[in-house]
Specification:
This protein is an alpha/beta fold. The chain folds into two domains: about 1-90, Helix Hairpins (Orthogonal Bundle); about 110-255, Mannitol-specific EII, Chain A (3-Layer(aba) Sandwich). It has nine helices and ten strands. The strands form two sheets. Strands 5, 6, 7, 8, 9 and 10 form a six-stranded mixed β-sheet that branches. Strand 6 (about 165) and strand 7 form a beta hairpin. Helix 1 packs antiparallel against helix 2 (about 15-25) and helix 8 runs antiparallel to helix 9 (about 245-255). It is globular and about 55 Å long. The two termini are about 20 Å apart.
Amino acid sequence: MARAQQEAADGGTRLTQLDESIASLMGDLPDIVAVQFRKLTTKGLLAIVPISNQACTACGMVLPKSFIQAVRMEETLFPCPNCARIVYLPQVDIRSQGKRPRRGAAPKVGVQRFSGPELMIPKLAGTTPEEILSELTDKLKAEGYIEDTKNVLDMAMNRETMSSTAVDHAMAFPHVRGVEGGGLTLTLGIHRKGIKFDPSSRKLTRVFFFMVIPTAASAFYLKLLAGLTQAFRKTENREKLLEAKSEQDLWKALVKCTKSTVK
């Protein structure tokens, strides 16, 4: 999944590093597990998915309690009886609340389906990756999109240790996958001076797109990521974000610049 995300966000030399890491990890798997995993990934990116509300989060099949108990014992790998993906019970159940549209409201299109002006932060103040991610998760909680900021923050930081989500053009796409409830949600933050978000790079990051992603939306997230990258690798579009002085200004710039790239 990390490789697919990097590829959607313009690829770059990090793809080679990820390929090497993936090959090394695959080499550590027992042969029978490696074969099973490769077979699943030929059908889609989601080969391993969590159980939530007693159901497989990929296909939605409600699982018998005896099956869930066997998964909990962690003595072997268990495929979902319906979709064959490997299932597991997450140690922490992260949930997002989302918000229902007002009755009579016009249908939302493009990036408006995943965000809103209340989720814009035109002036991030943090100076470290953790402080930046804390501001972004706090915004999601303040606006009623998530409940548990600590676990969401921990998961986001753990994702960064795997492979930084910072890319070229002073942008980063931190995120948390496997969130249940609600829908894919995006909050956008701007840091005027920029911070060193990727510890392996000297480049500064100024634009942060942070997303909480339900398991079922993982594949679509890649399309959103590609659309955002396509729009904001253009200098003139990034400048519109950086010039925004208010939440409304930032929101209008985001919607306008992604009109043709995020459907």
